[in-house]
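Blinded run. Sample ID left blank on purpose so nobody reads anything into the name before looking at the predicted structure. Input follows.
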Amino acid sequence: MRNAGIYHRFHRKYVKTTDSNHQLAVAPNLLSRQFDELGINEAWCGDITYIRTREGWLYLASVIDLGTRRLVGYSMQSRMTSDLVMNAMKMAYENEMPDAGCIFHSDRGSQYCSLSFQAMLQEYGLRSSMSGLGQCWDNAPSESLWATLKREVTPPSGQFDTRKEAKTKIKDWIFYYNGSRPHSKLGNKAPNVYYAELLRLI
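Blinded prediction complete.
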């Protein structure tokens, strides 16, 4: 690498996005790391990550359908509040209209444990599931999505100039991820392609 003039891009400062130090109720882990062999909209998972910009952090929340690995809902804001995850969930629900009983898995962060978010899950007929304390592998599909997004979207400088620029690039990448990007868990098919194939089998 040195001879070729190639250098490793050092990871930026870690930003904590999970606040588990609260007195809110925590849901049991209904998935137990069983992320495969699921049908369309049988189980979802979600998480929050951060994107560096010269204007400050941009926070991004996701909702992934584990049966197809499609990113069915997302939200971006400059603050990490309950609204961030609620807006992502609202998009996912309105896009997919899953049957009652669909699992939504997340970490134990205060945004997901909040009374308002849990009330939303009940209203939508979704079952709440949460990772064990400090167990990032309990939500591995979300972690994998963030790693891929940041590797493929983040500028060489490590940050975007503005939050607006970051939002545009991320939305473009989500369109590419769902529609065209091969996924190793789906036999190297894009999530939307795999989803269409499953629909034909129903």
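Unblinding after everyone has recorded impressions. The chain has six helices and five strands.
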